[in-house]
Amino acid sequence: MQLGPSAPTIVVGLLAAVAAACSDGGGSPESASQAFCRLPEAEVEARVDDLLSQMTLEEKVEQMAGTGALGSGGWLAPANERLGIPGFAMIDGPRGVSVLGGHATAFPVAMARGASWDPELERRVGEAIGAEARAKGASVLLAPTINLLRHPGWGRAQETYGEDTHHLSRFAVAFVEGAQQHVIASAKHFALNSIEDTRFTVNVTTDERTLREIYLPQFRAAVQEAHVGSVMSAYNRVDGAYCAENSHLLRDILKGDWGFRGFVESDWILGTRSTVASARSGLDIEMPSPSFYGAKLIAAVEAGEVPMDDIDEAARRVLRTKLCFELDSDPPVPDPAVVESADHTALALDAEREAIVLLANRNAALPLERSALGSLVVIGPLADSANIGDTGSSNVNPSYVVTPLAGIASHAGSAQVVFLEDDGSSAASQNALAAADAAVVVVGLTAADEGEGGVSGGDRHTLALSAEQEALIQRVADSSRRTIVVLEGGSAITVEPWIDRVDAVLMAWYPGQEGGNAIAEVLFGDVNPSGKLPFTVPHDESDLPEFVSDPARLDVTYGFLHGYRWIDAQGIEPRFPFGFGLSYTSFTVANLTLDGRTLAPGGVLGASVDVTNTGARSGDEIVQLYVGFEGSRVERPRRQLAAFARVHLEAGETRRVPLEIAARDIAYYDVAQAEFVLEPITYVVQVGESSRDLPLEARFRVR
Length: 703
Ligand code: BGC
Known about the structure:
CATH class of the largest domain: Alpha Beta
Radius of gyration: 25 Å
CATH architecture of the largest domain: Alpha-Beta Barrel
Strand order of the largest sheet: 2-3-4-5-6-8-11
Helix content: 25-40%
Number of strands: 27
Bound molecules: beta-D-glucopyranose
CATH superfamily of the largest domain: Glycoside hydrolase, family 3, N-terminal domain
Distance between the termini: 22 Å
Largest sheet: 7 strands, mixed
Strand content: 15-25%
Shape: globular
Oligomer: single chain
Structural class: alpha/beta
Number of domains: 3
C-alpha cells in the first residue's frame, strides 16, 4: 500500500453532474438510452406504456421466463400473440453459434482472439457470429463471456479474453458492437464467475474497490460504450447473495449507476434460486423455464411479497429491448448461406493467424525452410485431432476441422511429412525422429482437461501438461535435431520441465476450424507470428494467487492483485510475462511523446511512439502502454495496461503510432465518495513490447 499526503481528489468526468445513484456511471443513463435503441426512445416507451396498460399480471409474468423449449434458433422466451409481442430465441456462444443450432463457423476461442490484441478483428468476428445466429433464427446471442481471468486454472478461461481489465474491456465492446449488428448480445456472467467446479454454490467476496476497478469495468464498457441489450447473471454468489438475487450488482450498479436499459436473464437452471428475492433484486427473465417465476411469481405478487412495480419494470425492460432491437418488425435476416461461408471461414483463419504466440525460438529454429527440409516428423496426441475447445455450452460443430497434421501436410511443399501415431518410443519412431530434420510435437489440453463444470473438464488442478505429454516432449527432444512444440489449450500452461530441451514453442490455443492451416503457415514462415499473451505464464503455479475450486471451501476472496499485477508486486519473475510474444522479425520503439503534461478529469491524454521493424521481413507488432503511479494514497499496481495498438510494418519501416490514455482507466474507486477519482499525482507512462519490456518512459500529472 502506498500512502501519500492526503490531497484533494478530483471526480472523473461528468460524474459529479449525474444523480447520486450514478456514482459509477461514467456517462449518464440518458446518453446510454439514446444509443441503446434503434428507434426514437420516446416512441418506444410510449408503445411499451400502451402494451403494459393492456397486459394482465399473467401476461407480464409470462414475459419474465423462458418457455423451456428449444427451437431452431435456440432457447425460447415467450411471444404474446394477442398483443403482437415477439418472443426471444437465445443461443450460445463465444466462439461461434452453438452446436444446438447445427453447423456453424468455429472461430478460435475468445482467449486466442484476445492474444491478437486486435479489437477491430474481434468486431468482425462478433459480426460474423451474430449474422450466423440471426440466420438460424436466434435473436439473442449468449456471448460474450467477459469474466476476468483471475487465474488460469478456471475451466472456462478459453471463453474470455484475458487477465487485464483494460484489454478485456476493449474486446467486450468490439464483440458486442459487431454482434449487435444482427442480434441482441448478452454479456455474461455477471459477476465474479471464474471458478467452475463450485460454480453453483461458491460465494465470492471482494471489497467494493476491487469489484468496481478490477472485475466490473468490462461489463460497464459493454453497457455504456457498446449498449449491450442483455446481461446474464452468474450462477455463483457474490458477498453472500446469488447473482440473480443480488440487488447490489443488478439494481445498484448495473441498472442504477450504469443506466443499463436492457434486461437481465439468469444463467440456466440453477441460475435462479428464488422467487421473491430475484424479482425484487432485478432479475428480469428466469431461464430456461419458470421454476421460480411463472405461477410462483404470480402468487407472490398476489400475496403482496413482490410489488407490482417490480413486475412492470421487468416487463418494461423485456418489451423495450424487443422493440428497440426491432424484433417485431421482421427486418431482413441474413441469408443462411452466411453460415460457414467462405468469408467467415477465412475470418476464422485470419483470427488464428493473428492469435498464435511464438513463445520460444532458439537459434531461429523457426520458420522451417521448406527447401532445406528433407523430412519432418509430426507427433503428439493432438496432432491429428479436431481439438477446438470446450464441449459445454460454447461447443460449436463446424462441418470440417483442419487439424495441425492436415495443415502441415498441405503446406509442406517438397518436404516429406512423417506422422508418428505412437508416443515416440518404438524403434520405428526413434529411427524416424533421428532421420528427420525437425519434429513438431502437438500437445496441450482438451475438453477433458478444462471446460464448463459438470459438462466438460471443469477447472484445472495443475497448470502443467500431463506427465505423458511431458515425457513425450523429452523423448522427442532426445532423438530429434530440432524439436518444435505446438501447444493447444485455453490459458497458461507451465513449461518448466521441458522448455530448455526444445528449440521452439508456439501457443496455438483451441484454434478453430481453420487452425491447422494457420499453424502450418506460421511454422513455414508464410505468416509471421504476432500474437501476445493476454495473461501471465508463471514458472510455477505457486507464483500466482491461490486458486480455490474445492467444494469444501465455498467462501473465496478475490484480492486487489492478480496476474501481472500480482507478480509485479511480489517481485516474481514470470516465465512469460503478460503481453509477451516473439516474432520472425524484430521491432524497436522510440521517441515517446505525450500530447500534454496534464490529464483532465474525464479526458484522454494522447501519446505517440515510433515503432520500427528492424528485421528483414514484414510483420505486426503490438505496442503496449502501461501507467504507474507515484505517491498514490491508495494501493495501486506497479503498473497497469492503459493502451495498446497492433501495427503492421514492412521490413525497415517506421510508423508513428498514436495511443490514448483515458482518465477513467487510471482513476481509482473511492468507496467513501462512491465515485471514481482521478488522483492529482504524477503518473509514469511506460511503453514497449510486453509488460516486462518497457524501455520508454514519460510522466504527466493531474492537477
Ligand atoms: C452457461 C452459460 C450458457 C447457458 C445456456 C450455462 O450452463 O453457464 O454460459 O449461456 O448455459 O447454454
